Structures are given as C-alpha cells and as structure tokens.
Amino acid sequence: MAGDAAAGGSKAEKPSVIRPTDADSIRLARKLVREARFGAISVLEPETGHPFASRVLVGTDFDGVPVILASMLTTHMKAIIADPRCSLLLGEPGRGDPLAWPRVTLLCVAERIELDGESDARIRARFLRRHPKARLYASFRDFSYFRLVPKRVSLNAGFGRAYNISGDELIIDSPFNHELCTQEERFVAIIEKLGCNVPDLLAKHYFREKTGNWYISGIDADGVDLARKETIHRLEFVNRVTDSNGLIAEYSKLLIEPTKN
C-alpha cells in the first residue's frame, strides 16, 4: 500500500490537531471569557505595524462580548483607534505547567462606547460591579470603554485539545438581552431575595468556597457571575433564558440542590 501511495504521488493525510467544535468547547470558551478579570491584549503599533501587547481589565456585556476600560493616552488604546483589529488572550493558569491550563484567544474588532451615549450607562454599571476599585478612575474623561467583538476564537483546552470557534458561537443571543439593558439591577435585587445569602450558598455548594460576602456581578441569558474580591465564578443555567419569568425559573433550579443539603 505504501508503494501504491508513492506511485500515485499522494501522501497519507496527517491527523488534524484541531478537534471538531462541540457544545462543551463553546461552553468552556464562554466560561473563560465570563470568569476573566484581566487579559493580554495585542494590537498593531501605528508607527511601526509591530504587534504590541498589554494587560487590560476585562468585563463582559450581556451578550458575552468582552469589554475593556483604558485610558486613551495608553499605547494600546491609541493603536485601537488607528486600527480596531486586536486579539485578546484570556485564561489564568494555576499550579504546575501553565500550558496545561485552558486559555482562549479572541480575534476581535474593537467598538468604542461613546461617553454618555446609549450604551455607556449599561457598560459602565456591569464593568464596575466586576471591578469596583476601577471607580477610582473610571470617570476620568480620558478613559473609554470598548466592546471587543469576537470574529474568530482559538480555544486551547489543554494538551491535545485545540478548537476553532466562530465569533458568532461565542455570542449569547436571546430576546432577554433587551430587558437586561435597562433592568439588570432590578433583576439582581429580585433573585438575591429568593433566599438568605443566596450568592454565598451557591459559591459554597458549586465551587466549594468557604468564605462569605459573595455577590452577583452579572446576569445574562445563559447564567450568572458570582464575585468576591479577586475571584469570579461562572454558574450556567440549565436552559437559555428568554424572559424575566424564565430567569426566575432557571435561577430557582440552581438553588434546589444546595438547599437540600
């Protein structure tokens, strides 16, 4: 058979290092984005065209699109204004080999959020719930928020587990996003009243956290983000939410198991 292949001038195809995209890989990519507090952004330096990397604080919008806040005086922000194409690397390693831990690279196009515009209040409120210390400088006039809209996603889930994911697959698309745009604070208050110290209960049960003072830093149609100081945990709903009644139903499902214990 080897002789036949050689005679035909063809070679056996090498196995692809990229695995087929599935629901678990998409879920992991979204989780890495939702749990990120910071990341490394890569831009093209306007003067030289050379790649330039910097660290940025990271939040998310309702649809899962990453959001950054930075001074327009920085090199990476000047570069984004000149060319909105950028990449964002997320995924914090733990103990041992850093390359054994999952990380995701998003190839994005940056969209600036106009100060005092329609989206500014929404983006600002969500970002500052995740990064309360950023209130010290977030109101400075030289700081701006940017949505980094993913066009293509490269997920490395660990050795031998690489996936290519489209930008659209990372987006959380639901009619409920429209309600969240203006009512997220109300929804947070409602679900936190479903029980005593509910965020603490969820953090302890699902993530084995022993400390208190957990709070909900964000809600979207696929789940909630729990935060405490430097830690963020992503808790997924069973089903995607399409309205406020669905939100209460899905959140209540998360509470059933821990309240049994």
Please tag this protein with its features.
single chain, 261 residues, alpha+beta, 6-stranded antiparallel β-barrel, 3-stranded antiparallel sheet, 8 helices, globular
The share of residues in extended strands comes to 25-35%
Tally of separate helices: 8
Encode the helix/strand succession as letters. HEHEEEHEEHEEHHHEEEH
Q: Helical proportion?
A: 25-40%
Quote the distance from N terminus to C terminus.
62 Å
Task: Return residue spans where pLDDT drops below 50 for at least 5 consecutive residues.
Answer: 1-7
Strand order of the largest sheet: 2-3-4-7-6-5
Q: Please give the number of β-strands.
A: 11
Q: Mean pLDDT, rounded to whole units? A: 88
Structural class: alpha+beta
Question: How would you describe this structure to a colleague?
Answer:
The protein has 261 residues and is α+β, with helices and mostly antiparallel strands. Helices cover 33% and strands 30% of the residues. It has eight helices and eleven strands. The chain has a six-stranded antiparallel β-barrel with strand order 2-3-4-7-6-5. Strands 9-10-11 form a three-stranded antiparallel β-sheet, with helices on both faces. The termini are far apart.
